[in-house]
Specification:
alpha/beta, 7-stranded parallel β-sheet, 3-stranded mixed β-sheet, 41% helix, 16% strand, globular
């Protein structure tokens, strides 16, 4: 599909970290964008999205509508006349209301895919995650053929169930669906920090003296936005696309790099020995009793400790033509969002 200002893309969850960057990328490349948020009267959900259009001088090419993916009604009407659907809306949380996380992922997918079929949307780009790919088996390069088998975290379960559902609906409804599987998404431009970036603030303040060696891989949010657009534009793109340019990292290596780039910060330079991880989980729990942000719940520790982030992004590079923002840019842009 050729880039054209006459093409209109519908994007769900445009207020989110990925969603609002998708809006900007699409506007920069000549598309019209119609986006949904749950409340048009909440400035935290709309102002930063509208600002992209203002910055680019293309207010006439951005329209926001109100919609909750948990509601089935209204989506066909919203999607009618659009040339593509980018479905990003989800609850990204490692804790909280399990049922809400599962329902938003699964019911949202069901409602939007049926609406896309009814509105005869020619192409759907769906935001999944490497949470649906998994971190096992350890020591093996993981590609688009791998699937998550761990159900310790509600978010992991939700992303895996919802992506399986997406593929089932794609076949049932005869939809042209391409799925994006990013790793932890870094970079600025968020209103509410996601679990991928919320540890940065505490790291900068020295809230924890050592960092665990949890496996991580990261990608810049601008690259995630660009991959969505490229998946829409490349006609022969199909299937899943892992976005993991910076792999086989750990939380401790990220914190150490923060300290190296920002020596004035208090980000921990030392890694926590795995044998002491239960103590860190206990301290995290204790801090939670006093209102502190929790990071190392028992479920999180159990989920993250069994695998690695040895992912392949070869398909995204070959098919979508992806090149990547550097690791230091990922770190700097995230840190700058807190400064």
């Amino acid at each position: 599909m050729e880039e054209s200002s006459s093409q209109r893309i519908f994007v769900t969850g445009v207020n989110g970290h990925i969603g609002n960057h998708i809006v900007r990328d699409l506007l920069e490349h000549g598309y019209c964008v119609k986006g949904s948020v749950r409340s048009l009267t909440d400035p935290s959900k709309v102002d930063h999205v509208l600002q992209h259009a203002k910055d680019l001088g293309v207010e006439d090419r951005l329209e926001l509508v109100e919609g909750d993916v948990l509601d089935a009604d209204g989506w066909t009407e919203h999607l009618t006349g659009c040339d593509g659907l980018f479905h990003t809306a989800t609850i990204y949380s490692t804790q909280g209301d399990t049922q809400a996380i599962l329902d938003t992922a699964n019911k949202g997918t069901m409602h939007l895919f049926h609406a896309a079929a009814n509105a005869q949307i020619p192409r759907v780009i769906y935001t999944s995650s490497t949470a649906a790919v998994g971190t096992k088996p350890k020591g093996q390069l993981k590609d688009e053929s791998n699937w998550q088998t761990d159900t310790n975290l509600p978010y992991t379960t939700a992303k895996t169930q919802a992506e399986h559902l997406a593929w089932e609906l794609a076949a049932q409804l005869e939809l042209d669906v391409r799925i994006i599987n990013p790793t932890a998404v870094l970079g600025g431009g968020f209103v509410r920090p996601t679990p991928s970036v919320d540890f940065f603030q505490d790291a900068l303040k020295g809230a924890f003296p050592v960092a665990p060696k949890f496996p991580m891989a990261v990608v810049h949010v601008r690259d995630v936005a660009r991959a969505h657009r490229r998946a829409f534009e490349v006609d022969n793109a199909e299937g899943r696309f892992i976005l993991a340019p910076h792999t086989n990292l750990t939380l401790s290596t990220i914190c150490r790099r923060i300290r190296e780039l920002y020596p004035e910060s208090k980000s921990p330079k030392l890694a926590l020995p795995n044998i002491l991880l239960p103590l860190a989980v206990f301290q995290d729990w204790l801090g939670g009793l006093f209102g502190k942000q929790r990071y190392l719940t028992r479920s999180v520790a159990k989920s993250l400790g069994k695998g690695d982030t040895n992912y392949s992004s070869e398909k995204a590079e070959r098919v979508l033509g992806m090149t990547w923002e550097g690791f230091d840019t990922c770190i700097r842009d995230t840190v700058d969002a807190y400064r």
